[in-house]
Structure prediction request, 902 residues.
Amino acid sequence: MSTIKYILPENEMPTSWYNIQADLPEPLPPYLHPLTKKPLGPDDLAPLFAMELIKQEVSQERYINIPDEVLKIYRQFRPSPLYRARLLEQMLDTPAHIYYKFEDVSPAGSHKPNSAIPQAYYNMKEGIKRLTTETGAGQWGSSLALACSYFDIELKIYMVRVSYEQKPYRRMMMEAWKGKCVPSPSLDTNAGRVALQADPNNPGSLGLAISEAVEDAMTREDTHYALGSVLNHVLMHQTIIGLECKKQVEMAGEYPDIVIACAGGGSNFGGIAMPFVHDNLKKGKNTRIVAVEPSSCPSLTKGVYAYDYGDVAGMAPIAKMYTLGSHFMPPPVHAGGLRYHGMSPIVSHLHKLGLIEARAVNQLATFEAGLTFARSEGFISAPETNHAIRVAIDEALKCRETGEKKVILFNHSGYGYFDMTAYDTYMSGKLTDYEYPSDKVQEAQAGLPQL
Amino acid sequence: MSTIKYILPENEMPTSWYNIQADLPEPLPPYLHPLTKKPLGPDDLAPLFAMELIKQEVSQERYINIPDEVLKIYRQFRPSPLYRARLLEQMLDTPAHIYYKFEDVSPAGSHKPNSAIPQAYYNMKEGIKRLTTETGAGQWGSSLALACSYFDIELKIYMVRVSYEQKPYRRMMMEAWKGKCVPSPSLDTNAGRVALQADPNNPGSLGLAISEAVEDAMTREDTHYALGSVLNHVLMHQTIIGLECKKQVEMAGEYPDIVIACAGGGSNFGGIAMPFVHDNLKKGKNTRIVAVEPSSCPSLTKGVYAYDYGDVAGMAPIAKMYTLGSHFMPPPVHAGGLRYHGMSPIVSHLHKLGLIEARAVNQLATFEAGLTFARSEGFISAPETNHAIRVAIDEALKCRETGEKKVILFNHSGYGYFDMTAYDTYMSGKLTDYEYPSDKVQEAQAGLPQL
Prediction:
């Protein structure tokens, strides 16, 4: 018995991204301006984003060509392998066929470079010399530092303080690629200073780090801002994952019954899921598509679907999404990439339309799944990825009960090498669970913008 | 401009290892028994190693079949990619063509599983339930923990204390794969207790950790010992690297003028080098083959070629090799995998015969090379690997002077994700160099066994 690897030939790598906006049964609600509360136009976004990315954000074209320069860098690590997890299947004694798409292979160790590279590229093409961004667990920050080093762009990263302290290695990695990384809240922005004045021990949040990065970019001519998840263009860049998967499951002679990914802002989930949502909508397929979030930060399963601020300071666009409120401070769980208060508008819309499912799982159960995976397939997974593994294992165990040979595909979004202390905490019995308090929902609703 | 990746089709993966003993112009000097000082027989090794590995150690067959069960696990991450480093070439402005074989892709992140997997397999086949080993930087210990988890073997790892303290993440990784890891010297063995009695702050050495692991294995019926480098069978398992490389440079339409790898015990160097030594010996090729070691632990360039103990306590076989003396305590440089006092008998023999070259480089220069590599090719390399990168860059810079289009191939033996603090120390200007003191050589000679 052994794991099987499906390698897509390089000339079969997709050369376009898939834009689900072309296929949505109802269009996405527009973004609103945080001050005027009116629908946003391209000019409103121009101080922050390259014009090409703004066009992609609202494009209704089904496929958008990937620039040659981006394809060349993608080819350093793409197409990524698809694995049939036969060692895990054996350990679980399940008749299910479990596949995982392996996004660990980029130099930054996750799916994030799939969007970081085109974002840096388009900004470089438009003459931008400096970018700002925020990062939670550090996967996005390090990926953008890598991408900026390819295109010789200066980068400043606002890293959520709790992760900055938990994950010094990620900061060092960003610095190895010449990124400048500061803990957020910082003294470098007004938003940061206000937060620190109110609470000098503020652990930070993605929403607050976004405020800092946006403010920094707004106040400098040579600087744009880059976001690692949530936005339509980011999710679209990630569709290369799902597009490759479709070819690879075909190589394996199968088609998934269930597609699973973890969801924080929604980028790795959207990336693997949307090409399969397309098949459900357009090709009569009937695949279950499951987004997995932490029970400590359960925007899809316990949030409200409403227009909300994307950041703490109310500087980023207002979006219609599932949200726990822009001031929600999630507990310091180890899956730092899943601690955003909201959810990508596309993923939220798909959920509202009933085109995808959502599941919340607790932290202890995800680490247990991660160790099961490491002790069968060998790979040590990011805490975020462990959420997807948890649900994949649960579905495979259901198949053991029913005898069904379901085909389960999940996105292995990244490795856990910078998260070994989290595994250590779990293995030594010191890890705890956090449940989202039900009274928080009212608080979230109270903080929504008045439209 | 972009990096180019050469992927060998899975059905082209070698199914035999190459055994250079079949082609040596002079045979290897035999191992000696540490007590009797007589040549070792298979029976002397039987308490420590599986019989199949003992046979491989002395085999004169040119090719030895890789068992199917090992091939299946290899295929999870092999064939590994060969990269043409065009981004690095561009940064160096060199006409040289630089290739690197990318061994980072195994779940343990280095070349070490190439030998860990067959070693665990043969021991499992012969009914062994428990293995012991030592580890320096942790690459070997984690690889063997991974391999033992595939074959359900219990593992105890004696980790050089200075690395145990510098690299807690590696210990946690071993534990994730169910390995039991203790700092060496430990209180669990006689050798460890003696060392701690003499110096409670003993930072440990590979030679001492070997003594502990060998003693542990000798005193338990169900237990064998596994070594991650130095021995002939270990180097032979690693030849899959060089055998794949030969096919991949052919895909690229080239043949290397220079082959480079770092050398501590010699396993990744031997693995990439020996198939090219074969071509020099048997096919009229004239490739320069360069082993790179740290100037702080320069066995090939400053050691003596003599019979010496493989470990501190004099329990492991005596081998003819370049050595700095079995009691040499190398300074705590970050390339923990390159801190062994001796050098593989095969590599030593090849060097003595003039079939390979050796270079010593200092620590600061290797980190500078590692950052140059990370800022062009993207990948962050192990401190050990940075030694090979240093010499590859030096050779490429020579080509810039002379205008020669040399083809340079080096072994990218592993990633540096567990070594980010070393990069941090370097980037913050706090890293220091260590030069091997010339008066130490006499000391090494004085400590050699009386034959």
Observations:
- Residues 124 and 133 of chain A are 15 Å apart (CA to CA).
